[in-house]
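Reopening: tRNA (guanine-N(7)-)-methyltransferase still failing for me.
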Amino acid sequence: MGKGKLAKFAEMKAMSNVFEYPFSVIDNVPFDMKGHWREQYFHNDNPIVLELGCGKGEYTVGLGKLFPDVNFIGVDIKGARMWTGAKLALEDGMTNVAFLRTSIEIIDRFFAEDEVQEIWLTFSDPQMKNPRKRLTSTYFMERYRRFLVDGGLVHLKTDSNFLFTYTRLMVEKNQLPVDMCTEDLYHATPAALVGTPLLTIQTYYEKMWMERGLNIRYLRFHLPKQGTLVEPEVEIPLDEYRSYHRSKRSSKETAR
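Support: Ran it again with your exact input. Result attached.
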Protein backbone atom coordinates (compact mmCIF):
# COMPACT_ATOMS: atom_id res chain seq x y z
CA MET A 1 0.00 0.00 0.00
CA GLY A 2 1.40 3.41 -0.99
CA LYS A 3 2.24 6.16 1.46
CA GLY A 4 -0.63 8.27 0.10
CA LYS A 5 -3.19 5.60 0.90
CA LEU A 6 -1.72 4.99 4.33
CA ALA A 7 -1.93 8.71 5.09
CA LYS A 8 -5.56 8.84 3.99
CA PHE A 9 -6.49 5.81 6.10
CA ALA A 10 -4.79 7.40 9.10
CA GLU A 11 -6.63 10.67 8.54
CA MET A 12 -9.97 8.91 8.15
CA LYS A 13 -9.67 7.33 11.58
CA ALA A 14 -9.99 10.82 13.07
CA MET A 15 -12.88 11.95 10.83
CA SER A 16 -16.11 12.33 12.77
CA ASN A 17 -18.24 11.57 9.70
CA VAL A 18 -16.57 8.23 8.86
CA PHE A 19 -17.40 4.83 10.38
CA GLU A 20 -15.11 1.93 9.47
CA TYR A 21 -16.45 -1.60 9.96
CA PRO A 22 -14.98 -4.07 7.47
CA PHE A 23 -15.53 -7.82 7.95
CA SER A 24 -12.53 -8.05 10.29
CA VAL A 25 -14.05 -5.48 12.65
CA ILE A 26 -17.81 -6.03 12.61
CA ASP A 27 -17.48 -9.66 13.72
CA ASN A 28 -15.80 -8.55 16.94
CA VAL A 29 -17.16 -5.04 17.54
CA PRO A 30 -20.96 -4.62 17.44
CA PHE A 31 -22.32 -1.60 15.57
CA ASP A 32 -24.41 0.05 18.27
CA MET A 33 -25.77 2.80 16.01
CA LYS A 34 -27.92 0.35 14.02
CA GLY A 35 -31.45 1.70 14.27
CA HIS A 36 -30.20 4.93 15.86
CA TRP A 37 -28.52 6.85 13.04
CA ARG A 38 -30.95 9.76 13.33
CA GLU A 39 -30.70 10.38 17.06
CA GLN A 40 -27.07 9.44 17.59
CA TYR A 41 -25.42 10.95 14.51
CA PHE A 42 -27.70 13.19 12.45
CA HIS A 43 -29.74 14.52 15.41
CA ASN A 44 -32.89 14.94 13.33
CA ASP A 45 -35.84 12.95 12.01
CA ASN A 46 -35.09 13.45 8.32
CA PRO A 47 -35.15 10.60 5.77
CA ILE A 48 -32.01 8.50 5.29
CA VAL A 49 -30.68 7.76 1.81
CA LEU A 50 -27.76 5.41 1.05
CA GLU A 51 -25.35 5.50 -1.85
CA LEU A 52 -23.95 1.98 -2.12
CA GLY A 53 -20.57 1.75 -3.83
CA CYS A 54 -20.02 5.49 -3.42
CA GLY A 55 -16.40 5.51 -4.64
CA LYS A 56 -14.92 8.96 -4.09
CA GLY A 57 -18.17 10.06 -2.44
CA GLU A 58 -18.74 13.09 -4.66
CA TYR A 59 -22.29 11.98 -5.51
CA THR A 60 -23.13 11.54 -1.83
CA VAL A 61 -21.82 15.03 -1.10
CA GLY A 62 -23.63 16.45 -4.14
CA LEU A 63 -26.93 14.99 -3.00
CA GLY A 64 -26.32 16.33 0.49
CA LYS A 65 -25.87 19.85 -0.86
CA LEU A 66 -28.98 19.66 -3.03
CA PHE A 67 -31.17 18.25 -0.27
CA PRO A 68 -30.12 19.65 3.13
CA ASP A 69 -33.26 18.20 4.76
CA VAL A 70 -32.25 14.63 3.90
CA ASN A 71 -29.52 12.52 5.52
CA PHE A 72 -27.09 10.81 3.14
CA ILE A 73 -24.67 7.95 3.86
CA GLY A 74 -22.07 6.86 1.32
CA VAL A 75 -20.99 3.22 1.60
CA ASP A 76 -17.90 1.63 0.09
CA ILE A 77 -15.05 -0.67 1.11
CA LYS A 78 -12.41 1.46 -0.65
CA GLY A 79 -11.34 3.87 2.08
CA ALA A 80 -8.70 5.73 0.05
CA ARG A 81 -11.39 6.77 -2.44
CA MET A 82 -13.99 7.61 0.19
CA TRP A 83 -11.50 9.97 1.85
CA THR A 84 -12.16 12.54 -0.90
CA GLY A 85 -15.88 12.92 -0.18
CA ALA A 86 -15.52 12.61 3.58
CA LYS A 87 -12.91 15.35 3.70
CA LEU A 88 -14.97 17.64 1.45
CA ALA A 89 -18.09 17.17 3.60
CA LEU A 90 -16.15 18.07 6.74
CA GLU A 91 -14.56 21.12 5.15
CA ASP A 92 -17.99 22.33 4.02
CA GLY A 93 -19.48 21.75 7.48
CA MET A 94 -22.09 19.33 6.18
CA THR A 95 -23.99 17.69 9.02
CA ASN A 96 -26.31 15.64 6.80
CA VAL A 97 -23.58 13.50 5.21
CA ALA A 98 -21.75 10.48 6.63
CA PHE A 99 -19.65 7.64 5.25
CA LEU A 100 -19.52 3.96 6.15
CA ARG A 101 -16.54 1.88 5.07
CA THR A 102 -17.69 -1.71 4.89
CA SER A 103 -18.57 -4.50 2.48
CA ILE A 104 -22.01 -4.13 0.95
CA GLU A 105 -22.52 -7.88 1.43
CA ILE A 106 -23.11 -7.14 5.12
CA ILE A 107 -24.94 -3.82 4.73
CA ASP A 108 -27.98 -5.10 6.63
CA ARG A 109 -25.88 -5.28 9.82
CA PHE A 110 -25.80 -1.48 10.01
CA PHE A 111 -29.42 -0.43 9.51
CA ALA A 112 -32.60 -1.51 11.28
CA GLU A 113 -35.98 -2.28 9.75
CA ASP A 114 -37.54 0.74 8.00
CA GLU A 115 -34.54 2.95 8.84
CA VAL A 116 -33.73 3.82 5.20
CA GLN A 117 -36.00 5.50 2.64
CA GLU A 118 -33.96 5.32 -0.58
CA ILE A 119 -30.90 3.65 -2.13
CA TRP A 120 -28.69 5.00 -4.92
CA LEU A 121 -26.50 2.69 -7.02
CA THR A 122 -24.19 4.88 -9.07
CA PHE A 123 -21.96 3.24 -11.68
CA SER A 124 -21.68 -0.07 -9.87
CA ASP A 125 -19.41 -2.75 -11.29
CA PRO A 126 -21.68 -4.74 -13.70
CA GLN A 127 -20.26 -8.05 -12.42
CA MET A 128 -21.07 -9.66 -15.76
CA LYS A 129 -19.52 -12.96 -14.69
CA ASN A 130 -21.11 -13.32 -11.26
CA PRO A 131 -24.85 -12.53 -10.88
CA ARG A 132 -24.70 -12.92 -7.10
CA LYS A 133 -22.32 -9.94 -6.84
CA ARG A 134 -24.46 -7.52 -8.86
CA LEU A 135 -25.83 -4.83 -6.56
CA THR A 136 -29.22 -5.10 -8.26
CA SER A 137 -29.43 -8.90 -7.96
CA THR A 138 -32.20 -10.50 -5.94
CA TYR A 139 -29.45 -11.58 -3.50
CA PHE A 140 -28.83 -7.92 -2.62
CA MET A 141 -32.47 -6.86 -2.99
CA GLU A 142 -33.38 -9.26 -0.19
CA ARG A 143 -30.80 -7.56 2.01
CA TYR A 144 -32.10 -4.10 1.14
CA ARG A 145 -35.61 -5.20 2.13
CA ARG A 146 -34.41 -5.73 5.71
CA PHE A 147 -33.87 -2.02 6.30
CA LEU A 148 -35.61 -0.20 3.43
CA VAL A 149 -39.16 1.06 4.07
CA ASP A 150 -41.90 -0.85 2.29
CA GLY A 151 -41.92 0.38 -1.30
CA GLY A 152 -38.72 2.37 -0.79
CA LEU A 153 -36.97 3.76 -3.86
CA VAL A 154 -33.95 2.24 -5.60
CA HIS A 155 -32.09 4.42 -8.13
CA LEU A 156 -29.72 2.89 -10.67
CA LYS A 157 -27.44 5.18 -12.66
CA THR A 158 -25.01 3.36 -14.93
CA ASP A 159 -22.93 3.48 -18.10
CA SER A 160 -23.29 -0.30 -18.47
CA ASN A 161 -25.93 -1.53 -20.90
CA PHE A 162 -25.45 -5.01 -19.41
CA LEU A 163 -26.25 -3.94 -15.83
CA PHE A 164 -29.09 -1.69 -16.97
CA THR A 165 -30.69 -4.46 -19.05
CA TYR A 166 -30.21 -7.05 -16.32
CA THR A 167 -31.81 -4.75 -13.72
CA ARG A 168 -34.70 -3.82 -15.98
CA LEU A 169 -35.41 -7.51 -16.62
CA MET A 170 -35.17 -8.30 -12.90
CA VAL A 171 -37.65 -5.50 -12.17
CA GLU A 172 -40.03 -6.70 -14.90
CA LYS A 173 -39.77 -10.35 -13.80
CA ASN A 174 -40.74 -9.42 -10.25
CA GLN A 175 -43.31 -6.80 -11.27
CA LEU A 176 -41.64 -4.09 -9.21
CA PRO A 177 -43.24 -0.65 -9.72
CA VAL A 178 -41.14 1.58 -12.00
CA ASP A 179 -41.15 5.37 -11.75
CA MET A 180 -38.63 6.21 -14.42
CA CYS A 181 -36.56 4.45 -17.07
CA THR A 182 -34.29 5.88 -19.76
CA GLU A 183 -31.37 4.54 -21.78
CA ASP A 184 -30.00 8.04 -22.38
CA LEU A 185 -30.45 10.26 -19.35
CA TYR A 186 -29.00 13.42 -20.84
CA HIS A 187 -30.50 13.20 -24.34
CA ALA A 188 -33.78 11.37 -23.68
CA THR A 189 -34.47 12.85 -20.25
CA PRO A 190 -37.78 11.81 -18.65
CA ALA A 191 -40.10 14.81 -18.41
CA ALA A 192 -40.20 14.57 -14.61
CA LEU A 193 -36.42 15.13 -14.46
CA VAL A 194 -36.18 18.04 -16.88
CA GLY A 195 -34.93 21.09 -15.01
CA THR A 196 -34.34 19.21 -11.76
CA PRO A 197 -31.04 19.58 -9.89
CA LEU A 198 -30.36 15.82 -10.04
CA LEU A 199 -29.00 16.23 -13.55
CA THR A 200 -26.34 18.61 -12.28
CA ILE A 201 -24.49 15.98 -10.20
CA GLN A 202 -21.95 13.98 -12.16
CA THR A 203 -19.29 11.71 -10.73
CA TYR A 204 -15.67 11.73 -11.87
CA TYR A 205 -16.13 8.55 -13.88
CA GLU A 206 -19.49 9.65 -15.27
CA LYS A 207 -17.82 12.69 -16.84
CA MET A 208 -15.11 10.46 -18.30
CA TRP A 209 -17.64 8.12 -19.88
CA MET A 210 -19.74 10.99 -21.24
CA GLU A 211 -16.62 12.44 -22.87
CA ARG A 212 -16.20 9.08 -24.60
CA GLY A 213 -19.74 9.35 -25.96
CA LEU A 214 -21.28 6.67 -23.72
CA ASN A 215 -24.93 6.93 -22.79
CA ILE A 216 -25.84 7.24 -19.12
CA ARG A 217 -28.78 5.04 -18.21
CA TYR A 218 -31.17 5.62 -15.33
CA LEU A 219 -33.81 3.42 -13.71
CA ARG A 220 -35.87 4.21 -10.62
CA PHE A 221 -38.15 1.62 -9.05
CA HIS A 222 -39.86 0.70 -5.77
CA LEU A 223 -38.95 -2.32 -3.66
CA PRO A 224 -41.94 -3.76 -1.73
CA LYS A 225 -41.22 -5.97 1.27
CA GLN A 226 -43.61 -8.72 0.25
CA GLY A 227 -43.22 -11.35 -2.45
CA THR A 228 -40.53 -13.84 -3.45
CA LEU A 229 -37.88 -12.34 -5.71
CA VAL A 230 -36.61 -14.40 -8.63
CA GLU A 231 -33.77 -13.88 -11.09
CA PRO A 232 -34.50 -13.25 -14.78
CA GLU A 233 -33.59 -16.33 -16.81
CA VAL A 234 -32.51 -14.40 -19.88
CA GLU A 235 -29.12 -14.23 -21.57
CA ILE A 236 -27.85 -10.65 -21.85
CA PRO A 237 -25.16 -9.48 -24.29
CA LEU A 238 -22.03 -8.33 -22.51
CA ASP A 239 -20.81 -4.76 -22.72
CA GLU A 240 -18.52 -4.42 -25.71
CA TYR A 241 -16.47 -1.53 -24.34
CA ARG A 242 -14.01 -1.24 -21.52
CA SER A 243 -15.06 1.39 -19.00
CA TYR A 244 -12.57 3.91 -17.73
CA HIS A 245 -10.05 2.01 -15.58
CA ARG A 246 -12.35 -1.05 -15.65
CA SER A 247 -11.32 -4.21 -17.45
CA LYS A 248 -13.86 -6.47 -19.12
CA ARG A 249 -14.95 -9.06 -16.58
CA SER A 250 -15.82 -11.96 -18.87
CA SER A 251 -14.85 -13.40 -22.23
CA LYS A 252 -18.23 -15.04 -22.69
CA GLU A 253 -20.60 -13.66 -25.32
CA THR A 254 -23.59 -13.65 -22.99
CA ALA A 255 -24.30 -13.95 -19.30
CA ARG A 256 -27.37 -14.59 -17.24
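The beta strands are 18-20, 48-52, 71-76, 97-101, 116-122, 148-158, 178-182, 217-223, 236-237, 254-255. If you still see a failure, please send the error message rather than a screenshot.
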